[in-house]
Amino acid sequence: MIDFYINITLLSFLVLTAIAITRVRNLFSVVMLSGMYSLLTAAMFVMLDAVDVAFTEAAVGAGISTVLMLATMALVGEKEAAPKKRFSLLPITIVLITGLVVVYGTSDMPNFGDPAAAIHNHVADVYIAESGVKTGLPNIVTSVLASYRGYDTLGETTVIFTAAVAVMVLLGSLIHPKKREDEE
Amino acid sequence: MNNQPIVRIGAKIMIPFIMLFALYVQFHGDFGPGGGFQAGVIFAASLILYAIIYDVEEARKIVHPWALNIFLGLGIILYAGTGIAGIFLGGNFLDYNVLAHDPVHGQHLGILLVELGVGITVTCAMTIIFFIFARQEH
Predict the structure, then answer these.
(1) Testing the interface with B: which of A57, A64, A158 to mutate, by most B Cβ within 10 A?
(2) Are residue A137 and residue A174 in the same domain, yes or no?
(3) Given this model, what pLDDT does residue B94 score?
(4) Do A116 and A43 share a structural domain?
(5) What's the confidence (pLDDT) of residue A184?
(6) Residue A127: CB partners within 8 Å, gap ≥ 6?
(7) Which domain holds residue A129?
(8) Is B114 in Cβ contact with A136 (below 8 Å)?
(9) A151 and B94: CB-CB below 8 Å?
(10) pLDDT average, residue stretch A61-69
(11) Which value does ipTM take for this structure?
(12) Domain ranges (residues) in chain B
Protein backbone atom coordinates (compact mmCIF):
# COMPACT_ATOMS: atom_id res chain seq x y z
CA MET A 1 0.00 0.00 0.00
CA ILE A 2 2.85 2.36 0.87
CA ASP A 3 4.19 1.71 -2.66
CA PHE A 4 1.02 3.17 -4.11
CA TYR A 5 1.38 6.43 -2.16
CA ILE A 6 5.09 6.73 -3.00
CA ASN A 7 4.30 6.21 -6.70
CA ILE A 8 1.54 8.82 -6.61
CA THR A 9 3.86 11.31 -4.85
CA LEU A 10 6.73 10.71 -7.29
CA LEU A 11 4.45 11.00 -10.34
CA SER A 12 2.91 14.24 -9.03
CA PHE A 13 6.37 15.69 -8.48
CA LEU A 14 7.36 14.61 -12.01
CA VAL A 15 4.34 16.42 -13.48
CA LEU A 16 4.97 19.52 -11.32
CA THR A 17 8.65 19.59 -12.37
CA ALA A 18 7.72 19.21 -16.05
CA ILE A 19 5.21 22.09 -15.79
CA ALA A 20 7.78 24.22 -13.96
CA ILE A 21 10.36 23.54 -16.71
CA THR A 22 7.97 24.87 -19.35
CA ARG A 23 7.00 27.95 -17.29
CA VAL A 24 10.35 29.13 -15.91
CA ARG A 25 12.35 31.51 -18.14
CA ASN A 26 15.61 31.42 -16.17
CA LEU A 27 17.76 28.73 -17.81
CA PHE A 28 19.76 28.04 -14.64
CA SER A 29 16.52 27.05 -12.90
CA VAL A 30 15.52 24.96 -15.92
CA VAL A 31 18.81 23.03 -15.79
CA MET A 32 18.40 22.39 -12.05
CA LEU A 33 14.76 21.35 -12.56
CA SER A 34 15.72 18.90 -15.31
CA GLY A 35 18.30 17.41 -12.93
CA MET A 36 15.50 17.04 -10.37
CA TYR A 37 13.34 15.41 -13.03
CA SER A 38 16.06 12.81 -13.70
CA LEU A 39 16.48 12.13 -9.98
CA LEU A 40 12.72 11.61 -9.58
CA THR A 41 12.75 9.28 -12.60
CA ALA A 42 15.59 7.35 -10.95
CA ALA A 43 13.44 7.01 -7.82
CA MET A 44 10.60 5.71 -10.02
CA PHE A 45 12.97 3.07 -11.46
CA VAL A 46 13.89 2.00 -7.92
CA MET A 47 10.17 1.61 -7.19
CA LEU A 48 9.95 -0.63 -10.31
CA ASP A 49 12.87 -2.74 -8.92
CA ALA A 50 15.11 -1.68 -11.83
CA VAL A 51 18.09 -0.60 -9.72
CA ASP A 52 20.60 -0.84 -12.58
CA VAL A 53 18.55 1.55 -14.72
CA ALA A 54 17.99 3.83 -11.73
CA PHE A 55 21.73 3.92 -11.13
CA THR A 56 22.39 4.94 -14.74
CA GLU A 57 19.63 7.54 -14.72
CA ALA A 58 20.94 9.12 -11.51
CA ALA A 59 24.55 9.17 -12.76
CA VAL A 60 23.96 10.21 -16.38
CA GLY A 61 20.69 12.13 -16.22
CA ALA A 62 21.06 13.93 -12.92
CA GLY A 63 24.85 14.12 -12.89
CA ILE A 64 26.69 14.41 -16.21
CA SER A 65 23.95 15.93 -18.36
CA THR A 66 23.28 18.63 -15.74
CA VAL A 67 26.97 19.56 -15.80
CA LEU A 68 26.99 19.61 -19.62
CA MET A 69 23.85 21.78 -19.68
CA LEU A 70 25.49 24.17 -17.21
CA ALA A 71 28.59 24.33 -19.43
CA THR A 72 26.35 25.08 -22.43
CA MET A 73 24.47 27.71 -20.41
CA ALA A 74 27.74 29.45 -19.64
CA LEU A 75 28.08 29.95 -23.42
CA VAL A 76 24.54 30.95 -24.35
CA GLY A 77 23.52 33.02 -21.32
CA GLU A 78 21.01 32.53 -18.54
CA LYS A 79 17.93 34.24 -19.95
CA GLU A 80 15.44 32.72 -22.35
CA ALA A 81 13.57 35.18 -24.55
CA ALA A 82 9.93 35.53 -23.56
CA PRO A 83 7.49 34.09 -26.12
CA LYS A 84 5.57 36.69 -28.14
CA LYS A 85 2.20 35.01 -28.15
CA ARG A 86 0.86 34.05 -24.73
CA PHE A 87 -1.90 31.65 -25.74
CA SER A 88 -2.65 29.58 -28.82
CA LEU A 89 -5.36 26.97 -29.27
CA LEU A 90 -3.75 24.69 -31.86
CA PRO A 91 -0.74 23.36 -29.86
CA ILE A 92 -2.79 22.57 -26.75
CA THR A 93 -5.36 20.73 -28.92
CA ILE A 94 -2.64 18.61 -30.57
CA VAL A 95 -1.04 17.85 -27.21
CA LEU A 96 -4.38 16.88 -25.65
CA ILE A 97 -5.34 14.62 -28.57
CA THR A 98 -1.92 12.91 -28.59
CA GLY A 99 -2.10 12.48 -24.82
CA LEU A 100 -5.57 10.92 -25.03
CA VAL A 101 -4.39 8.53 -27.77
CA VAL A 102 -1.43 7.47 -25.58
CA VAL A 103 -3.71 6.97 -22.55
CA TYR A 104 -6.10 4.95 -24.75
CA GLY A 105 -3.11 2.86 -25.89
CA THR A 106 -2.16 1.98 -22.31
CA SER A 107 -5.56 0.33 -21.79
CA ASP A 108 -4.32 -2.56 -23.96
CA MET A 109 -1.12 -3.01 -21.95
CA PRO A 110 -0.82 -5.81 -19.38
CA ASN A 111 -0.70 -4.85 -15.70
CA PHE A 112 2.69 -4.22 -14.13
CA GLY A 113 4.27 -7.50 -13.04
CA ASP A 114 1.58 -9.61 -14.77
CA PRO A 115 3.16 -13.07 -15.24
CA ALA A 116 1.03 -13.66 -18.36
CA ALA A 117 2.42 -10.57 -20.13
CA ALA A 118 4.12 -11.25 -23.46
CA ILE A 119 7.48 -9.91 -22.25
CA HIS A 120 7.64 -12.54 -19.48
CA ASN A 121 6.93 -15.48 -21.78
CA HIS A 122 9.74 -15.22 -24.31
CA VAL A 123 13.36 -15.58 -23.16
CA ALA A 124 13.11 -14.09 -19.65
CA ASP A 125 12.41 -17.51 -18.10
CA VAL A 126 15.50 -18.96 -19.76
CA TYR A 127 17.68 -16.12 -18.47
CA ILE A 128 16.35 -16.46 -14.93
CA ALA A 129 16.76 -20.23 -14.94
CA GLU A 130 20.09 -20.56 -16.74
CA SER A 131 22.16 -17.38 -16.49
CA GLY A 132 23.36 -18.05 -12.94
CA VAL A 133 24.60 -21.53 -13.91
CA LYS A 134 25.99 -20.70 -17.35
CA THR A 135 27.78 -17.43 -16.56
CA GLY A 136 28.30 -17.86 -12.82
CA LEU A 137 27.02 -14.33 -12.13
CA PRO A 138 24.28 -13.65 -9.61
CA ASN A 139 23.30 -10.37 -11.32
CA ILE A 140 21.12 -11.36 -14.28
CA VAL A 141 21.19 -7.78 -15.62
CA THR A 142 24.96 -7.92 -16.06
CA SER A 143 24.96 -11.36 -17.67
CA VAL A 144 22.22 -10.31 -20.14
CA LEU A 145 23.92 -6.97 -20.86
CA ALA A 146 27.46 -8.24 -21.34
CA SER A 147 27.00 -11.83 -22.47
CA TYR A 148 23.58 -12.69 -23.93
CA ARG A 149 23.26 -9.23 -25.52
CA GLY A 150 26.97 -8.53 -26.02
CA TYR A 151 26.39 -7.25 -29.57
CA ASP A 152 23.96 -4.58 -28.36
CA THR A 153 26.33 -3.39 -25.65
CA LEU A 154 29.17 -3.18 -28.18
CA GLY A 155 26.86 -0.99 -30.27
CA GLU A 156 25.99 1.19 -27.27
CA THR A 157 29.66 1.69 -26.44
CA THR A 158 30.27 2.65 -30.06
CA VAL A 159 27.48 5.23 -29.75
CA ILE A 160 29.27 6.83 -26.74
CA PHE A 161 32.54 6.75 -28.69
CA THR A 162 30.82 8.37 -31.68
CA ALA A 163 29.36 11.09 -29.43
CA ALA A 164 32.83 12.04 -28.20
CA VAL A 165 34.21 11.99 -31.76
CA ALA A 166 31.30 14.12 -33.00
CA VAL A 167 31.95 16.73 -30.29
CA MET A 168 35.63 16.75 -31.30
CA VAL A 169 34.77 17.21 -34.98
CA LEU A 170 32.30 20.02 -34.29
CA LEU A 171 34.18 21.97 -31.62
CA GLY A 172 37.81 20.98 -32.28
CA SER A 173 39.74 18.25 -30.48
CA LEU A 174 41.55 18.78 -27.19
CA ILE A 175 44.95 18.40 -28.83
CA HIS A 176 44.37 20.52 -31.92
CA PRO A 177 41.88 23.19 -30.90
CA LYS A 178 39.85 24.59 -33.76
CA LYS A 179 40.40 28.33 -34.14
CA ARG A 180 37.31 30.46 -33.93
CA GLU A 181 36.43 32.42 -37.05
CA ASP A 182 36.90 35.79 -35.35
CA GLU A 183 40.44 34.84 -34.34
CA GLU A 184 41.63 34.02 -37.83
CA MET B 1 35.89 28.23 -7.31
CA ASN B 2 39.52 28.06 -6.25
CA ASN B 3 39.03 30.76 -3.60
CA GLN B 4 36.35 28.94 -1.60
CA PRO B 5 38.15 26.85 1.04
CA ILE B 6 35.13 24.81 2.19
CA VAL B 7 34.25 23.74 -1.34
CA ARG B 8 37.88 23.09 -2.21
CA ILE B 9 38.71 20.98 0.84
CA GLY B 10 35.35 19.19 0.72
CA ALA B 11 36.02 18.20 -2.88
CA LYS B 12 39.57 17.15 -2.03
CA ILE B 13 38.22 14.75 0.60
CA MET B 14 35.43 13.42 -1.63
CA ILE B 15 37.26 12.87 -4.94
CA PRO B 16 39.30 9.76 -3.87
CA PHE B 17 36.18 8.14 -2.46
CA ILE B 18 34.20 8.88 -5.63
CA MET B 19 36.98 7.21 -7.64
CA LEU B 20 37.05 4.23 -5.27
CA PHE B 21 33.26 3.94 -5.54
CA ALA B 22 33.54 3.99 -9.35
CA LEU B 23 36.01 1.09 -9.20
CA TYR B 24 33.69 -0.76 -6.81
CA VAL B 25 30.75 -0.26 -9.19
CA GLN B 26 32.94 -1.39 -12.09
CA PHE B 27 34.20 -4.62 -10.59
CA HIS B 28 31.23 -5.44 -8.39
CA GLY B 29 28.77 -5.03 -11.28
CA ASP B 30 28.78 -8.82 -11.74
CA PHE B 31 27.26 -9.29 -8.29
CA GLY B 32 25.19 -6.17 -7.61
CA PRO B 33 23.77 -3.25 -9.50
CA GLY B 34 26.33 -1.45 -11.63
CA GLY B 35 28.67 -2.08 -14.50
CA GLY B 36 30.85 -0.33 -17.02
CA PHE B 37 28.46 2.47 -17.99
CA GLN B 38 27.70 3.56 -14.44
CA ALA B 39 31.29 3.19 -13.27
CA GLY B 40 32.58 5.17 -16.25
CA VAL B 41 30.18 8.01 -15.58
CA ILE B 42 31.04 8.10 -11.85
CA PHE B 43 34.78 8.10 -12.56
CA ALA B 44 34.31 10.88 -15.13
CA ALA B 45 32.25 12.77 -12.52
CA SER B 46 35.20 12.75 -10.13
CA LEU B 47 37.46 14.22 -12.84
CA ILE B 48 34.80 16.79 -13.78
CA LEU B 49 34.39 17.75 -10.10
CA TYR B 50 38.15 18.32 -9.92
CA ALA B 51 38.01 20.43 -13.09
CA ILE B 52 35.11 22.52 -11.75
CA ILE B 53 36.66 23.14 -8.32
CA TYR B 54 40.28 23.78 -9.34
CA ASP B 55 40.45 24.63 -13.03
CA VAL B 56 40.06 22.85 -16.33
CA GLU B 57 43.73 23.59 -17.09
CA GLU B 58 44.79 21.97 -13.79
CA ALA B 59 42.62 18.92 -14.56
CA ARG B 60 44.17 18.65 -18.03
CA LYS B 61 47.58 18.34 -16.38
CA ILE B 62 46.36 15.24 -14.50
CA VAL B 63 44.60 13.53 -17.41
CA HIS B 64 46.47 14.52 -20.53
CA PRO B 65 44.30 14.96 -23.66
CA TRP B 66 46.48 12.43 -25.50
CA ALA B 67 45.80 9.82 -22.83
CA LEU B 68 42.06 10.54 -23.01
CA ASN B 69 42.00 10.20 -26.81
CA ILE B 70 44.02 6.98 -26.77
CA PHE B 71 41.99 5.34 -24.01
CA LEU B 72 38.74 6.42 -25.69
CA GLY B 73 39.62 4.11 -28.57
CA LEU B 74 41.33 1.46 -26.42
CA GLY B 75 38.09 0.76 -24.52
CA ILE B 76 36.24 -0.21 -27.69
CA ILE B 77 39.27 -2.14 -28.97
CA LEU B 78 39.32 -4.09 -25.69
CA TYR B 79 35.62 -4.91 -26.11
CA ALA B 80 35.80 -5.87 -29.77
CA GLY B 81 39.17 -7.57 -29.18
CA THR B 82 37.57 -9.83 -26.57
CA GLY B 83 34.99 -10.75 -29.22
CA ILE B 84 37.64 -11.43 -31.86
CA ALA B 85 39.68 -13.47 -29.36
CA GLY B 86 36.62 -15.72 -29.15
CA ILE B 87 36.82 -16.29 -32.92
CA PHE B 88 40.53 -17.18 -32.77
CA LEU B 89 39.94 -19.60 -29.89
CA GLY B 90 37.37 -21.49 -31.95
CA GLY B 91 34.09 -19.90 -30.97
CA ASN B 92 31.86 -17.18 -32.40
CA PHE B 93 32.31 -13.40 -32.15
CA LEU B 94 31.75 -12.37 -28.50
CA ASP B 95 31.53 -16.02 -27.43
CA TYR B 96 33.16 -16.03 -23.99
CA ASN B 97 32.84 -19.78 -23.34
CA VAL B 98 36.09 -20.51 -25.19
CA LEU B 99 38.18 -17.84 -23.41
CA ALA B 100 39.13 -20.20 -20.55
CA HIS B 101 39.24 -23.96 -20.07
CA ASP B 102 35.97 -23.89 -18.18
CA PRO B 103 32.98 -22.14 -19.93
CA VAL B 104 31.87 -20.49 -16.65
CA HIS B 105 35.36 -19.08 -16.09
CA GLY B 106 35.40 -17.96 -19.72
CA GLN B 107 32.11 -16.15 -19.27
CA HIS B 108 33.43 -14.50 -16.12
CA LEU B 109 36.63 -13.35 -17.83
CA GLY B 110 34.81 -12.17 -20.96
CA ILE B 111 32.23 -10.15 -19.02
CA LEU B 112 34.97 -8.60 -16.85
CA LEU B 113 36.94 -7.55 -19.94
CA VAL B 114 34.04 -6.11 -21.93
CA GLU B 115 32.74 -4.22 -18.88
CA LEU B 116 36.23 -2.80 -18.39
CA GLY B 117 36.25 -1.73 -22.04
CA VAL B 118 32.87 -0.03 -21.62
CA GLY B 119 34.06 1.69 -18.43
CA ILE B 120 37.25 3.05 -20.04
CA THR B 121 35.45 4.37 -23.13
CA VAL B 122 32.62 5.99 -21.12
CA THR B 123 35.06 7.67 -18.70
CA CYS B 124 37.12 9.13 -21.55
CA ALA B 125 34.10 10.14 -23.66
CA MET B 126 32.42 12.01 -20.79
CA THR B 127 35.65 13.73 -19.72
CA ILE B 128 36.52 14.72 -23.30
CA ILE B 129 33.05 16.15 -23.92
CA PHE B 130 33.22 18.18 -20.68
CA PHE B 131 36.74 19.47 -21.34
CA ILE B 132 35.81 20.58 -24.87
CA PHE B 133 32.63 22.30 -23.65
CA ALA B 134 34.49 24.01 -20.81
CA ARG B 135 37.22 25.27 -23.17
CA GLN B 136 34.67 27.12 -25.32
CA GLU B 137 34.27 29.79 -22.62
CA HIS B 138 37.75 31.16 -23.13
Answers:
(1) A64
(2) no
(3) 85
(4) no
(5) 42
(6) A140, A143, A144, A148
(7) 112-148
(8) no
(9) yes
(10) 88
(11) 0.90
(12) 5-135
